[in-house]
Structure formats: structure tokens, C-alpha cells
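EI: anyone free to look at a 119-residue chain?
SC: sure, send it
EI:
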Amino acid sequence: MNWELMLVGVGVSIGSSLLTLAFAYLLFRWKLKELLYQELDELSISMKEKLREGVTEAGKELMPEFREEVREGFKEALTSAMSGDLIEMTAKQVAKNSTNIVEQGLGMLLGRRPEEYRK
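SC: here you go
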């Protein structure tokens, strides 16, 4: 068998394969890429719409329970405020904060370091 003829055949095969790949790449680059991106855009719009519909539906299903929880929480807050617990807790917190401020102020006047009057 003639080696030269065989090398020419292999070279032609490789060249043909490279030209096919180049043609496929150019075809993808010019036409298929646009079609692919257009298809992906349409798919993303469709997914957004379905997601929005799902979230809206879930919100409609959960809204009565949410309203009931808010209503109960509001009733509980009003009940505790009416009983004076909230006012008492607030008064205690104000007194504690005021005491801390006075203590820190006196500590600074007496030249104590913050670590000393925090203990």
C-alpha cells in the first residue's frame, strides 16, 4: 500500500472534519445562538408567571390563618397593656436605665474607669 496516498486520505479526512466543525460553529454563532436565547427568554418568562401564580395562590390560602394570628396577637397585646403588665415592665426598664446613666455619670465625675462602675 502506498503510504503517501494513505497520508493524503488522513489529511483530507481531518480537513473535512475541521471544516464541518467550523461550519457548525458558524451556524451556531449566527442562527442557533439567537434561537436558543430566544427560547430561554420565553422559558424564563413562563417560569416567572407560574411562580407568581403559585405565590399568589399560596398567599390566598395562608391569608386567613395569618389574619387570625395577627388578630390574636393584637388581642393579647391589648389585654396585657390593659392589665398594667406592659406599663409596669416599661417603668422598671426606665428606672433601671436611669440608674445606670446616673451611676456612669457619677463614676466619670469621680474618675473611675468604665470597668470599675460596671461591676
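EI: The helical segments are 3-83, 85-109, 114-118.
SC: 👍
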